[in-house]
Amino acid sequence: MKIKDITQIAIGAALLASIGSIAIPIGPVPITLQMLGIMTVASILGAKKGSLAVIVYLLLGMIGLPVLSGSGGLAPFVGPTVGYLLSFPIAAYLIGYFSEQHRSFPALVTYNLVFGLGLVYLLGSLGLQVMLGLSFLDALTVNIPFIIGDTLKALLAAFLAVKVTANKQVQRSLAS
């Protein structure tokens, strides 16, 4: 792995850590900007680097830095948010993989909605079901208050990724 790749992964993890530490508690799952960061980082960095950035971010939280909705340590990984946290690198990999194929705004919005929201809500709900003893349907309904905000995050992440990657392409063409 090149220094440039490591730097991009570190910057992605730092971005996630900085915005992931902000949380508004509204129940077992707080409102955060984590999904905005994950979708944006994965869409820009691609599958490998995007998912590695998310893993580094989660490791920073595991070692105790308060980057996981304002908390850190192992508690978030054995509580109601475990399914969401474990789904983040999977979602980042899938968003990144497909974004490497198609970087248009409609395509990125679709990947963000399917993997950034659909997959994360599914696995997060499974975690809630197990950790809180809820029925799957009850666990799934916990996500309802987040749908509008997360959809806006998916749109914003796609917009940012298109702008950043378009600028990279212009810079490459000017350099050659």
UniProtKB/TrEMBL annotation:
Gene3D superfamilies: 1.10.1760.20. It comes from the Bacteria. It is found in: Cell membrane. The chain crosses the membrane at residues 54-75, 81-99, 111-132, 144-162. It is a multi-pass membrane protein. The keyword Transcription does not apply. It holds the Pfam family BioY. Keywords: Cell membrane, Membrane, Transmembrane, Transmembrane helix, Transport. Belongs to the BioY family. This is Biotin transporter. It comes from Exiguobacterium alkaliphilum.
